[in-house]
Specification:
Blueprint (H helix, E strand, L loop, with lengths): L1 H25 L14 H14 L2 H14 L4 H16 L3 H14 L6 H13 L10 H16 L4 H24 L1
Helix pairs in contact: 2-3, 3-4, 4-5, 4-6, 5-6, 6-7, 6-8, 7-8
Length: 181
């Protein structure tokens, strides 16, 4: 008798846990995945580039991510990673642009597009700088990212722009100090 009561309690606990978990999973809080439709790399990349040219940046980013997902070992996958980050940047989804660029750099640190990935990270932080009355954490992150780009790739055109932006960021941080004082 005692065995069946504890078994019933354990079973009901298991059922309630399963129901609670399935209820949480059913909510639309997460990002929906792109449905998998097998396509060749040229078709996918051309569709993504077409969306980018039309100004449909979110769709372009999703298609560039799909190129990487379906054809991870093709030479187009590396280019699609950078183009996906660029598409997120144009869509003003700066967090996703930073994450995509960092993922590219972690997999391909010596690629010829690495300076551009660092530049996208720096620009994504730079575009989020708010006025001097607000918290300046993003401003500091922008300064750090611009400095990293300038230090790693000093002879690129991106570094030249980074140095100009670093002066503006420093002025902004100085403005915050003046505001505090």
């Amino acid at each position: 008798m005692r065995m069946s009561v504890s078994r019933a309690v354990a079973l009901s606990t298991l059922v309630l846990t399963a129901l609670a978990t399935s209820a949480c999973a059913g909510r639309g809080g997460g990002k929906a995945d792109t449905p998998y439709v097998a396509r060749d790399v040229n078709t996918l990349y051309a569709a993504a580039k077409d969306r980018l040219d039309r100004g449909q940046y979110k769709e372009a980013a999703a298609l560039f991510d799909e190129v990487e997902r379906q054809h991870p070992y093709s030479i187009w996958a590396r280019r699609a990673q950078v183009m996906g980050a660029f598409s997120y940047y144009l869509a003003q989804d700066y967090t996703q642009a930073i994450q995509s660029s960092q993922r590219f750099l972690s997999v391909h640190p010596g690629n010829r597009d690495a300076p551009y990935a660092y530049y996208l990270i720096a620009l994504s932080y730079y575009e989020q700088i708010s006025d001097v009355t607000r918290d300046q954490k993003i401003t500091q992150q922008a300064l750090d990212a611009l400095g990293e780009l300038s230090r790693r790739y000093p002879n690129t055109r991106y570094a030249a722009d980074a140095r100009l932006k670093m002066d503006l960021v420093r002025d902004h941080l100085a403005g915050k100090e003046m505001e505090i004082g």
